[in-house]
Structures are given as structure tokens and as C-alpha cells.
Amino acid sequence: MAGERVAILGAGPAGLSAGWKLAEGGAHVLVLEKGLSVGGQSTTFSWKGMRLDYGPHKVYTQDPRIQREVESLFEQGELLSIPKRSRIRLAGAFFDFPVRIQELLFKLNPLVAANCGSSYALALAASKLRKPREDSYESYMLARFGRGTYDLIFGPYARKVWGEPRELSASLAKSRVAVPSLLDLARRLVAGDRGKPAISAKEFSYPRKGIVELSEKMAARIRRNGGEILLCSTPEKLVLDGKRITRLEYGSGGQPASFEPTHVVSTIPIAHALSLIKPATPEVNAAADSASTLRHRNLILAVIVVKKDRAFPDNWLFFPEAKFIFNRVYEQKGFSEEMVQKGQTAVCAEITCAPADPIWTAGDEEVCGRVIADLVSAEVLKKEDVTDSGVFRMELAYPMYDIGYEARLARALGFLDSLENLYAIGRNGSFNYAGMLDCMDMGIRTAEHMLGSAPAPLWAESRKRFQNYVTVD
Fold it and tell me: What's the pTM?
């Protein structure tokens, strides 16, 4: 691609991985990032002498190709190997995650266990008589796990993280739940995976100084190959001429600037990208109208500082029970001991919500007070050990797969795909609930398509792969 000029909007894993490969392929790459650092949602921030991630990010993939790409960025010893341990709180007790049959038999209330088993048997029998409805997250999960297990785990957890389950698309369940049924889960718990893709990581890798190091390594490769990364810079206009973007106008350091790209890779939210395209033709407006109906969930991260070296032995804990305000809790020292000083630890509680939910605009003191009370109630920590707390907020953290979103997304992406030199990828760029390394896969494959080494001749065909990622915790 010698002589090609590629503009990349957003410096998260998708944009940086595309830029890395394109720069190595000879293209002149310009990356615009509105934030103060690279990494997007997979970043690390400093607070009161600690380094903290926005979420329990892990370097783990079942794709050996992407694993090799990640490892190629780091020198020996820069990536830690972390044994994965996580638990889930159910009916008042903690269970290893994935759950073990022995624990279920001895710790779960027999009546609760019997309800899970009998309701699954009823769901299985009903499916033999008539094909079950699977048009929502709720109906999909009920058909495969039964009412008991759904009410115990899947329903309340979905409600806390993504919204009302009966209003969510079944595609969310397919991408976020790695086992197809309760029977399959039971078989795996007894006999193991037996050649099937794992449903849980046994260990994962992690950079010593935070997950942002992965993005910083890719950014360094871009710069080493002559590319530019402009922080605190925002795109303002994408000039459309026929089916091509011919000019990018942007602001950087308070000054207007422009760039004439041969290609554009957009990882910014679809609605925002469409709003930048001028002139706003009827086709642009129709796509923008569809994109404007795509909804997101926001993230509140409450950080509780505790005067102990470790608060619990796990990397993270799941809390589907409705009585707890948070849905997941992680400890930064469960990833790297080097990120928090000795003698204290950072317990991070994740709360997801809609932008209109009262908790989103609640004061920091109120949020931390509720989080601390719930952590004490769950016996994760003692109130007298808490020394400090803080709240951090992230908008557009999770795409919300509500019923009917597929058609609306297809209309928006269909228009962007019709442009000859624009590629919309990444979690927000393609409204895809993908993980960090899945986004890297998107970026690398997009670069290969642009460099001419991708096997599929059409971009829309190449991009179908991106809809099939499955999360492994």
C-alpha cells in the first residue's frame, strides 16, 4: 500500500491493530483519538498512586493466530501468566465459576436445585412436542435452561447488565453464553470439554502495568512505521464525493486541519460517523435515522480502597442477585500486583445502566455508600478496612441488543459498506458486543482486506465473520 493514505478514527484495539498492520504494509496512517491516551474502553488510568483498568480485561483468545500477534508485541517477561479464578454468588453462597457438580450438591439449597432440574425437564419435554419460541433473550434461555436456572442466574444477570430480558434479542444469548443448554453444561462439568471449545479460560495473560500496554505496543508499531497518532483530536467532517470519502476535516490541539485519505477506518459510534458525512444525502439521512435507534448501556466503576494486600483470592466475582447494585466485582491485584501499592488493594465494582437511570446521575458519595454496604453484606470486605473510594463513568460501554436491532443495524452498516473506501469496525464502530482481542481480529482482518491478502473479494462478506464471536469468561 505504498502511497496509500489511511485515516483511522479511534485509537482502541480495533483501530490500532488495523493501523499497525497497514503501517507495516506501507500505508501512511493517521489515527485520531479524542481521549488523552490510546486504548479506548480497554485502557488504564492512574488514580491516587494506583493504576486501574476500566473492567477486568484479560489477554485470552481461542484463536491461536491472534494469540501469536499479541505475543509478538511483547518482550519476554512483559506478559504475566495469571491462573484464572472466578466465583458467582447464587442463593446466598459463592460457587466456583464455572460451577462444579460437587459444590452444587453440597452448597445449593436442595429445593433450589430440584426446581432447576425439574423446570429443565419440563422445558426439554415441551420442546419435543412443539418448537419453542426463541425470539428474545428470555425465550431463548428458558427453552434451553428451564425456568429455575433462568430465574436463578440468567434472567437477573441480564436484567442488571443489559436491561429487561424479554426486550433483548436472542442473538445476545448466543454470543454471551458459551454453552447451548443445561444438559450440555452438565455433561461438560462431569466429562470436561472433550475437544469442544472451552467455556472458561484456565489461565490468561496480562501486561504488568495494565491493559493499556497492549494498545501502547500497537501504537509504537504505527509510529515506528511512519504513522501518526493525534490525541485530543476529533473528526469534524467526512466529505463524500459519489461513493468515496475524499477529505477528512478534523480538529487537533484547538486547530483545524484536513487529510485526504484513500481509505477511512471508523471505530467511532456508527451514529456519530454518519453524522460527519457531508453532504447529508437522503441515503445518509436514512442510515443515520436507523443508527440513531441503536442504544447503549453506560458503565459506572466504583473503586473501593481497602487496607489489605488482597481482599479476595479471585480475579473477579459475578453477582446476578438483584439485591446487589453491582453485577461484577474485580480486584486489580488479581491481574498484576504491580499496579497497587503494598498494604492496600483496589476492589472495583461494575454497575451498568441506561443513560436515563437515576444511578447514572447519582452523586459519588451515594454510589460508593451503596457499593460498600453491598460488599459488606456479601462478606467481600469489612467496612472498617475501607480507606477511600472513587467513581468513574464511561458512556457507550455496551451495545444493547434489543429486539429488532439487527434490521436497524443492517440498514446503517449497509450504507457504510456501500462506500468504496470506508470500513466500520470495532465494538462501537460496528455495534458489535465483541471483546478486546475480537476487536483486534477485526482490525487485522480489515487491514488484510485493504492490503489485498484477504481471501474474500467483498468487504461485506469478509465482515460476516465478525458476527460470530462468543465470549469466554
Answer: 0.92
